[in-house]
Amino acid sequence: MPRTRPTAKELVVDAPLEWVEERTGFVGLVESFLFRKVPGDTSWLQTLGSSLLTVFLLQATTGVILAMSYHPDPGSAYESIRYITDQETLGWLVRGMHKWGSSVMVILLFLHMARTFVFGAYKYPRELTWVTGGLLFIMVMAMSFTGYLLVWDQRAYWATVVGVNINGTGPIVGPYLANFFKAGPVFGDQTLSRFYSLHMLVIPGGIFTFIFIHMWLVVRLGVTSPPWSRQRYDEAAAREAVESSR
Amino acid sequence: MAETPADNQEHRTTPGEAAAAAAHPGSAQAAMSRQKLLTGATVGLGALMSVIIAVPVTVAVLAPSFKTIKEFSIDIGPATLYPAAKSGEIPWHAVTFESRPDDLSGLSRRLVYVRNDGNQKFTAIANTCMHLGCPVQANATGFACPCHGGQYDSQGRRIAGPPVRPLNRYETSINDKGHLVLGQLYAMDDSLKRHQLKGPGQPVDGILSYLYPDAPQG
């Protein structure tokens, strides 16, 4: 067979991808993640999870940019927020995306959870997907709570005083939990840096970890049909599919 | 990955095999027990290192939960600054002060309502609402909280809204310069009996008070 010259696509796209695939297996991994089989009656309702992932990545990206200019110090936190909003190039936009993105994330989270519940998608074999989702829900709530204080205006301060004291009314552990948040028995300068550390390091680390586990389970177990699906559900075949994927 | 024969075998050693392994170093049994030793060492050392890292980290993170409140005596100036009110006036003098003299951030600034009860006796009521800690304001009948509508009478006892107990008070005394001095902050119950301080929203008397360990004080 005569050797033909490689086409431009082969040269620019296929060959580098093949080189990477041979050494890492990443291409196959990405393909098996993106080109999964889903039920024929999958609808827009099943896109809430990927929307959430997108908003989380938006929050993470804008959060990193905000952290470059924010001072977690009681004396200068509010001024640094003002600097971001009024002086920094497009700072108002980045802060606005982070602020509104947080509300969008909570709203999408409730919709995503409601969809899963109504579809019965938490049932066998997806119980752990639901449980990891529940943990993610708690972590997103904790993000909202810790992020609110960082603006360090009167509303942020008093809302957080109230929030911490609500934690304090929990029986037995409540007072200790409140002191944990305050980093001591009273609100002090350690409180702001503790909230900052929880907001930008501790909880995001947990969210990244659990999103990975959550999505691993989604890919492994597949997507559920809606309850009104006309496609017959063959439990034996479904179990077999789970078995064979091991 | 090519599997070595040992990979496929059950890693269980009988006493006889162990003896054989000791007798014949380099044999299959000896290799297996070496593998077990290295597995155990890896897991054990990993666990040990995790504990060595986790213990100080956990202690450092949780220690503030058990920190005590440092109390300072606060001199709020000559007692003559706080005259008794004429009838019809709001009897409270609003006084701001730094509860920790070493803290310059403004976060330790507190507001206390001082009333001259006559005969060199003073009542000092903290402005922290006993619902969830918002600042209350004095008015003609007592105190009111802007956050969730808590109302208190002129002794700081709850008359309406969600607060669970009366407002906290400071000990008051007059020092040798004739200045009014605020001492320890303490909690009150409805019969105006003094109690150990607890956080806002936490009852100090009745069955529910057992659910809230007293805030440790130093």
Q: How do you describe this structure in short?
A:
Chain A is mainly α and 246 residues long.
Descriptive tags:
heterodimer, A: 246 residues, mainly alpha, 10 helices, B: 218 residues, alpha+beta, 7-stranded antiparallel beta sheet, 4-stranded antiparallel beta sheet, 3 helices, elongated, disordered N terminus
Structure write-up:
Chain A is mostly helical and 246 residues long. Chain A has helices spanning 8-24, 26-34, 48-69, 77-86, 91-118, 127-150, 154-168, 174-182, 189-221, 235-244. The model of chain B is unreliable at 1-8 (pLDDT under 50). In chain B, 22% of the residues lie in helices and 25% in strands. The chains are: A mainly alpha (246), B alpha+beta (218). At the A-B interface, helix 7, helix 8 and helix 9 of A face loops of B.
Write the element-wise H/E pattern of chain B from the N-terminal end onward: HHHEEEEEEEEEEE
Instruction: Kindly state the percentage of residues in helix of chain B.
Output: 10-25%
Average pLDDT number of chain B: 87
Helix content bin of chain A = over 70%
